[in-house]
């Protein structure tokens, strides 16, 4: 009992000082979470706890393919209720475990995975289940070292590698699938206040209490604040414990504002008292360190140790709570509590982070390759108030020669917040305005939210109503009405296929038979906000759970997927409005597993505080390891007026985020970078220019993630899975495979900082060429971090391609020459890569791109720097979504790039002044500054060789020979 | 064919002239030192490079001066000759970016063939635009000249007013001095007697009551003001809050206020659409019945001041008389009782003189009169005279102030060109609101649907941005109005008026780029400087 009461005690402590946290449930305010935790507490107290669920061995049916089987499962608590188990091994070794109630009173929601997965996974042709007396066994893997064991009684599923358990389902016996029942039956069976003398009756009534508890707690109607959830289906929760016996660190399950290495929620010194919550919600002024749910949910968790990495994806769409504890420093116990849905867990066997990302992206898809311009700088504000305001902002950026690619319009462009409909008082000429922006190669992004103002003169609402594609009230008869920005509003039900073609047709810029957004341009892209959905007068600022979607599903069943559907369809709409299609850009606030296929996300309405700046870095990293790399937080903080120092630091964070957008609340002072005084203004200009110069690195990193699923931002544990010293680091990270290591400063008054170097390697300061030395077991070094600097190192062994001519927008850099930074490692070698295509169409899928590798290696005593064609070597791995059989080096895009030069090669860490530097048989112009060599142990400024204009093209094969 | 292309080294932009992009003023610095390999110095002297490295599309000089004609160096400038129009400098970031810059009509910023030379058309259009601007300036500057003439007249008028006022003040000051003398004398004589009377507990209590009442009145007035201010805030909240935000605290506040003030719920009013236009009058609170003798609110409002203005000294005398106290206890006459004998003869002589003197002025009446109350009458005559003097002095100050501001660059401009517009009110209807700016006065926002206006602030200063000199044309390009009514959840409202030359005084646009910070544009002839001789000449040609 002690464990349980201490939990209760924790639960009643004020969880945080977050503003309006009373608007959102704690675990103790959600009936099923309360029940789940109580179940866990009872299990912990009991000496003889045993899961009531078991497999009926007689029912096992192995499929003809051998890699999957189905079996009946029974619960000793309810012998009459039938469950089925379906376990299959995919061709990449991922194990999928599904359990559902069979012939129940109703049907549990079983479509979550179908929205998240890109396709039905292929069953392994090789794996065979061996049916034993106590268990089923499947052994596979390249070394035959993976074994999956399904034990019959009690039911457990365990994945072993090398004989060691890696992932265990129901190992703690917390699995519980609440079967459907009628309210009347429930009331009948409810324990009655029995007379003391008749203890026999009490015994009888409570024969399930050891597991389920004494009372039916929150089975039916539940209240929260002034809202009542009618819960017509009664209890239908799902609890499952998942243990990682060999892994002391878990990551993922975004979105939470907390450390990357997830802090505990159970155990003696639990960091949080509540479990992590996954329930997409519009949390006003959220807390910077909290397990509270935020705008998106990805139920994907990595478990990591120096020995291996595994992961699980729990495909459930209803509200879920996850407890995390470490019974020892090298193991992790998790407990997943969901309000509804079937059990559908994917076990990814790893064994490395790279393998896990590949396995996860084969399930839910790799991130889409974004348009090139989308990686540039985005300027947003709630609100640029008129078309002239937009023009003026553009003018000011150009006057100050600060690059920017995208101007954004928040909700005030729309007349009475009727999205698509311009407020002509302030935006009389929206198409002309967009064209003025596009004239400098820039784009517009305009907000489209999923709530529709309920007025007949709004064609979008009227058509949705006529098509009958709006979300319904309980019972499913009437269209639901709620309050949002546009006042009394209705919500499109994107689960209804009838809405799909209609929605995509709205974005056509050419007039057609039905209404479409002709007052728009094909360079106008979209921002989907409020898609949790956010409803001002709804429970927890969202939709009543008993609302009805297409197919009769309750909102509770689909809540966490809801936002992804809008994002999905808007991305399709934007792609389809041109022929040939162009890559879409759609920003979403709400997301789920699979959202990475549709565009970018941001961390929502953050605060202009140092704490939120710090949290933003962690959250973006968590999103990256959650498979959704195209992420960023609002630069400057959405709320508040950041002081100049804070704003500068925030841009330092932004330029090293995959998605880089400045945004501000309507109540804030304007804070566009040109408005700052010196020296801040010049620092911001140099930061923006740095981001633009590094766009080749970002784009190359995005190509990689779009094919491999490896995140764009890589925390230490992903880069160096065996270096324990880096497992909890979440304030510094690497950019793709480029070898660039960055540690943005998120504290006030900093002039230097400590950077952790995880290996015995040289790292060079990007700006000063200072050579820092790591150590085999990791070492921290002190790096200057004055306000005009972001601590930014190049790992020895990397070649970094950049474009260093500042332009007004990224499109205007298309034919600018490249600089290569060759950072020699301790062995005197380096390599890097560059991917380029037209940046906006899908012609790369037809082989129109260049993908180069640059290698610097020792030749005799000198150095040979070569450019080779990676695309020709690995055509099948070049492009997301298609495996090209061959690559034609004379493709249209490569021809367009034929005159684009490498204008400069900079080599760090040569051991001595070269005797000659030759390219194409001719001596080149070069300058050498003596300094520390890469292969020594010395600290100090590295030697720098600058080769001027070697006369080579970026898309051609070439060699430069440095004779030392 | 392609392998050929790839195998060839890729040349940098070949054949660019060394002086490409160099402005005329720097041409002499870009002279060939003799041969391609001979050394050339970066303009800031920081480095020597071979002459061949100038304009070779590679940035050698830290100051960027070796690449005037390419985009290779950041932060350098490129000169477009724009023959047929006006030459211009553009940032190097624009060179070779594939866009034809409007500032570079000869197309020299891009590779040849990309941008046509449109300097002829651009030049003509520019001339036309300049002509149009000059025309506006010519007309505007004539009006401006009238404003200046007005200022001169104003100067004369104010100077005249000042002269008159100064003369009047001299006369009045003498008069005040004389009356003060009389009042002081009367008071000094009766002081001791009055002091004694004032020892009366009744009088003391009366004064105490009076002071208490005054204090109460002061507090009451403050409360009324506060209540009105609170009411205004709550009215603004009630009319202006956004029900969509679903902020329960705001909703509570609105409902509470409606209950207190007896107003209908605003959402009902909104629904009924104006059927209750004057909703303030919907539920006037009923008058309470008053106990007999108690004052009504109206009496308190209007008559309390009068009551408090009572001359208590006079009252004291009257009181004495009323209860039959001896009439001759005035200290002036009874002082003999307290006087040391040695002083008596002199005193009595003086007394008679003084009394008779006072009598001749009608201030102190004979011993059967109300001499003490006459003392305050003397005081009153003096005070009235002094008030008149003060008012004349105030007028003088005002006139002097106006005169000072007339040609003050920080007020009406060095030529007084803005004086004419002092108090001129301009309006702009934006649909929902009408904005009004009374120049040098107050800016207001008035809802077109009715309701009270919001003050957007009062004139504080012209463009005070760093580096802008008072008196310069840029200085008069902006007016600031500040400390308007406070925004709910925001700052005090303020206005920046962006001004430019135009033939009429008019507001053109209204915007709210930040919450409660308004930006208005207006034109005024006061900003139209006369054409210079060369400019004027251009039109005649």
Automatic annotation (TrEMBL), chain A:
Biological or metabolic pathway of the protein: Glycan metabolism; N-glycan metabolism
Entry keyword set: Endoplasmic reticulum, Glycoprotein, Glycosidase, Hydrolase, Signal
Domain Glycoside hydrolase family 31 N-terminal residues, every copy: 85-323
Signal peptide feature range: 1-18
Gene3D superfamilies (alphabetical): Glycosidases, glycosyl hydrolase (family 31), Golgi alpha-mannosidase II
Glycosyl hydrolase family 31 C-terminal domain boundaries: 709-800
Residue ranges crossing the lipid bilayer per the database entry: none
Subcellular location: Endoplasmic reticulum
Predominant cellular place of this UniProt entry's protein: endoplasmic reticulum
Record carries keyword Hydrolase: yes
Glycoside hydrolase family 31 TIM barrel domain: residues covered: 367-701
Superkingdom field: Eukaryota
InterPro entries noted in UniProt: Gal_mutarotase_sf_dom, GH, Glyco_hydro_31_C, Glyco_hydro_31_N_dom, Glyco_hydro_31_TIM, Glyco_hydro_b
Name used for this protein in its record: Glucosidase II subunit alpha
From TrEMBL, chain B:
GO BP terms in the entry: N-glycan processing
Gene Ontology cellular component terms for the protein in this record: glucosidase II complex
Residue ranges annotated for the MRH domain, each copy included: 423-530
Keyword annotations: Coiled coil, Disulfide bond, Endoplasmic reticulum, Signal
Record InterPro entries: Gtb1-like, Man6P_isomerase_rcpt-bd_dom_sf, MRH_dom, PRKCSH, PRKCSH_N
Coiled-coil annotated spans: 148-199
Protein name (record): Glucosidase 2 subunit beta
Species whose genome carries this gene: Rhodofomes roseus
Lineage: Eukaryota, Fungi, Dikarya, Basidiomycota, Agaricomycotina
